[in-house]
Write a structure and sequence with these properties.
Blueprint (H helix, E strand, L loop, with lengths): L21 H15 L9 H30 L3 E5 L9 H8 L2 H10 L4 H6 L10 H15 L4 E6 L7 E5 L2 E5 L12 E2 L5 E5 L2 E6 L5 E6 L2 E13 L6 E10 L2 H10 L2 H12 L16 H24 L7 H4 E6 L6 H12 L4 H11 E4 L10 E3 H7 L1 H21 L4 H7 L2 E2 L5 E3 H7 L1 E6 L2 H9 L3 H6 L4 E3 L6 H7 L2 H11 L20 H26 L8 E6 L8 H17 L8 E6 L7 H17 L9 E6 L4 H7 L5 E4 L11 H7 L3 E4 L5 H8 L5 E2 L4 H9 L4 H6 L2 H11 L12 H8 L6 H20 L1 H13 L6 H13 L21
Parallel strand pairs: 1-2, 1-11, 2-10, 11-12, 12-16, 16-17, 18-19, 18-21, 19-20, 21-22, 22-23
Antiparallel strand pairs: 3-4, 5-9, 6-9, 7-8, 9-10, 13-15, 14-15
Helix pairs in contact: 1-2, 1-4, 2-3, 3-19, 6-33, 7-8, 9-11, 11-12, 11-14, 13-14, 20-21, 21-32, 22-23, 22-29, 22-31
The protein binds ligand 26V.
The site of ligand 26V has 22 residues, from helix 6.
């Protein structure tokens, strides 16, 4: 067959193997069903068809992937290594079809054969290898790096069990294990030939090498094998396919050999299982870790495997270790991979025999660190004894780094021992700990926060001493989200409407959404805008009806709070508003209110009892209100179980109101807030995280602002905040809290919610009562605005129009230019017919 090369898209559309033409896709699909899965249609399940389509798409990805790998290798391209303990990818099939530009053709090919395309997509298990925002950000960043044609590798952990599945039983959260690999994973390729060994424990020895130099050797007492599994990450309408490389722990072969010598077969099997435990399960990242040794082992596993892999790439491309930092820019996603700083030092000094100073220079030039939280209790520290037992050589390296660092500090701040103690990598205020954020700061040339306010507060609070020392290292990189998944794929109706109105340019440059702003004044356009939202709401209502048997009214205002359950995010403030509104209706049953559906979704860390009690509270309020005949369907509360990426894709497009109500100064950025805004929901929110920037861009008139500012909160705290004053000062809040305390929502059980009430009336650490009155008043303004459909649509259109800034493409461009200094590399597709076969030595 003649190859019709299409330079416009740089593809071979008619290529019989990986072409994008509909008929070719159909043939490839059947070929896979027959020859990859060995299934005949009469025996094929929906999952078989899903797999056939997945393999068909994967072939097209692999064509781009080998073309990309060839170009990077040939050019020795500078590469970003994004080190992250979490990648919350969501399902791959639909996203890959969007990025290949064949969503419609693939749908048509499948439907021509009489199959239900949506149902095939639903077969895919979501890899839940992350907790929430931090892991999802890493996934959006991979999409943007590939789209911007930036050579990049994502390095992470292939957890066998991702984030737990959440069931709601009698209103309580119940956790179930997430067996995402149950039916196999067509998107990954195992690369056993690139496995590396990871050491743990043991001791260190000093020796003299042939040249008489004093050297250190680490003799671990345990070795685990790390095996990489690669997933191609395709850019939007580009030929760039980067790699997500996830490591899985296995026992090394040496274990199996030892069995014969020692005759200890069952002991060997035990040890094998124990090695494999390292990548067994994802831990919550929002729960204090009480010295969990397995978590430290996981972190080291990720870091050591990834750095060894980077050395393998360096060696293969014949680049000197002295150029490590020229070849690689490594970004640490929070402190989970901060051990990379001492591991790179160990590899350079102990294994590659570089002098300390040279190695330190390379290390600092290689790493950059992103901080994702201001909560002081969230800053990771490892108890010294646990650290030294697990990583004895690394502790020596931490000490050496610290000694040299503190020498500098002492010279700089003569006679300020308090500052020296504050900056130290070792916390010696009580039990001794290694401070991971300090290790990350010292080992990096760049440190960033994830929203403007967050970065400012970082500089003033948790990292103040580092900012005093090295102000030039600090910068802000406001988060973003990928429009491919969060608009094009999840909201096709809105995508079509926008494209019809302003043309397709916005799809490659999201700031062009601004062209939509004048349309806010066009009545006919507003009507179509509302029709899109209505249709999206109806889809969600259908989905919830089908899966949970709950009937929601698409005409009501959809008021949505979906995110991890946490006291600082204040889902309970939202709950108080529900109860207050309920009381207003009970006291005045004919009162004219805007019918609302309160939608919640989110998981609580399994050991976070208060968060789990908040879940129970919401469900209990719902159970009463949803049944109350006085309410007559005007209020409805629904907690969607098991919130994850896929049902997020259904929720954001259907939301009217986005709840972003964290205590000011607590939410580093938020990214759900951006997904809502881009999908035309209005925000009710505090001046926290990226809300501040969202409001600046969409305009104060188009944003429902309430609550104390961070400075005001600090003021309240200083003055000795007394929540009881707010309780007694506001009849409505008193009635609300008393009703909850009376057992009204807990079948007369007055004790059930008492811990929450005690908290609110005692310390109220998240200033719920202080913000309650303003929140109520602001919700009234929401009602007023919603009653005026034209006004609401105008506001919604302007929200979308001015949210282009929150594309992760913009975030990544900033990282690229200001931190990584890496060039984009356009990729030309290899023509498989022109490849010469060679064997790698
Ligand atoms: C950690 C901990 C640990 C102990 C106690 C409570 C607690 C609470 C929160 C955390 C945060 C862990 C890091 C994290 O997930 N940060 C999130 O990162 C997102 C992406 O930058 C950002 O949008 C969220 O605002 C931020 O919470």
């Amino acid at each position: 067959m003649d190859k019709l090369y299409n330079p416009e898209r740089d593809v071979f559309p008619e290529d019989e193997r990986t072409g994008l033409d509909k008929d070719i896709i159909r043939r490839a699909f059947l070929d896979h069903l027959f020859f990859s899965q060995g299934k005949f249609p009469a025996l094929a399940t929906l999952n078989d068809y899903y797999l056939a389509l997945a393999y068909t798409v994967r072939d097209r990805l692999l064509h781009r992937w080998i073309s990309t790998a060839a170009a990077y290798t040939e050019q020795g391209a500078r590469t970003v290594c994004y080190l992250s303990a979490e990648f919350l990818m969501g399902t791959h099939l639909g996203n890959n079809l969007v990025n290949l530009g064949i969503l419609d053709d693939a749908r048509a090919a499948v439907e021509d054969m009489g199959l239900d395309f949506k149902e095939l997509l639903r077969q895919e298990e979501e890899p839940g290898l992350g907790n929430g925002g931090l892991g999802r950000l890493a996934a959006c960043f991979l999409d943007s790096m590939a789209t911007l044609q930036i050579p990049a590798l994502g390095y992470g952990i292939r957890y066998e069990f991702g984030i737990f599945d959440q069931d709601i039983v009698d209103g309580w959260q119940v956790e179930k294990t997430d067996k995402w690999l149950r039916f196999g994973n067509p998107w990954e390729i195992q690369r056993p030939e690139w496995a590396v060994e990871i050491g743990y424990g043991g001791h260190t020895e000093r020796y003299h090498d042939e040249q008489g130099h004093l050297r250190v050797r680490w003799v671990p007492d345990r070795v685990v094998k790390a095996v990489p599994y690669d997933t191609p990450i395709l850019g939007y309408r580009t030929n760039t396919a980067n790699t997500l490389r996830l490591w899985r722990a296995e026992s090394p072969e040496a274990f199996d050999l030892g069995v014969f010598n020692r005759g200890d077969y069952y002991g060997a099997v035990d040890r094998k299982i124990s090695s494999e435990n390292i990548t067994k399960v994802l831990y919550p990242n929002d729960e204090p870790l009480q010295g969990k040794v397995l978590r430290l082992e996981q972190q080291y596993f990720l870091v050591s495997a990834s750095l060894q892999d980077m050395f393998r790439i360096l060696d293969r491309q014949h680049i000197s270790v002295e150029q490590f930092h020229e070849k690689f820019a490594a970004q640490m996603n929070d402190t989970h991979p901060a051990l990379a700083v001492c591991e790179l030092m160990r590899l350079l000094v102990d294994e590659r025999h570089l002098p300390w100073e040279r190695a330190w220079d390379i290390t600092q030039k290689t790493f950059a660190y992103t901080n994702h939280t201001l909560l002081p209790e969230a800053l990771e520290q490892w108890p010294l004894d646990l650290f030294s037992r697990t990583l004895p050589r690394h502790l020596e390296i931490v000490y050496e780094i610290n000694d040299r660092f503190l020498d500098q500090v002492r010279v700089r701040y003569l006679g300020d021992p308090a500052r020296v103690a504050r900056l130290s990598l070792i916390n010696e205020t009580g039990e001794r700990f290694v401070r991971m954020a300090h290790l990350a700061c010292v080992g990096s040339h760049a440190i960033n926060g994830v929203a403007a306010l967050h970065t400012d507060l970082l500089k003033q609070t948790v990292l103040k001493d580092f900012h005093d020392l090295w102000p030039e290292k600090f910068s802000n990189k406001t988060n973003g989200v990928t429009p491919r998944r969060w608009i094009f794929f999840s909201n096709p109706r809105l995508t079509a409407l926008i494209t019809e109105a302003i043309g397709p340019a916005w799809m490659r440059d999201l700031e062009r959404l601004a062209d939509l702003a004048p349309m806010a004044e066009d009545g006919a356009f507003r009507e179509r805008w509302r029709a899109v939202k209505r249709a999206n709401k109806t889809d969600l209502v259908q989905f919830i009806g089908q899966h949970f048997g709950e009937r929601l009214d698409p005409r009501s205002l959809f008021d949505v709070q979906v995110k991890r359950i946490h006291e600082y995010k204040r889902q309970h403030l939202n709950a108080l508003h529900i109860v207050a509104t309920y009381l207003r209706l009970k006291n005045d049953p004919t009162r004219d209110i805007v019918p609302r559906t309160y939608l919640f979704g989110g998981k609580a860390a399994p050991a976070y009892h208060k968060a789990k009690l908040i879940v129970k509270l919401i469900n209990s309020i719902g159970a009463v209100i949803n049944q109350d005949p006085d309410i007559r369907g005007r209020l409805k509360v629904f907690f969607l179980p098991n919130f994850h990426v896929s049902n997020g894709q259904r929720i954001y497009p259907a939301a009217d109101l986005s709840e972003q109500i964290s205590t000011a100064g607590k939410e580093a950025s938020g990214t759900g807030n951006m997904k809502f805004t881009l999908n035309g929901a209005l925000t009710i929110g505090t001046l926290d995280g990226a809300n501040v920037e969202i409001r600046e861009r969409v305009g104060a008139d188009n944003f429902f602002l309430f609550g104390h500012t961070e400075a005001q909160i600090a003021g309240l705290r200083q003055a000795g905040y007394r929540p009881l004053d707010f309780y007694h000062g506001n009849e409505e809040i008193e009635a609300v809290i008393d009703l909850i305390g009376s057992g009204y929502f807990s079948r007369g059980d007055r004790k059930l919610f008492q811990p929450l009430i005690d908290d609110l009336l005692g310390q109220d650490p998240y200033f719920v009562l202080a913000d309650f009155a303003q929140y109520m008043a602001c919700q009234d303004q929401v009602d007023t605005a919603y009653r005026d459909a034209e006004r609401w649509s105008r506001m919604a259109i302007l929200n979308t129009a001015h949210a282009g800034f929150f594309s992760s493409d913009r975030s990544i461009r900033e990282y690229q230019q200001e931190i990584w200094r890496v060039s984009s590399v356009p990729i030309t597709l290899i023509n498989p017919d022109e490849v010469k076969v060679t064997v790698m030595q």
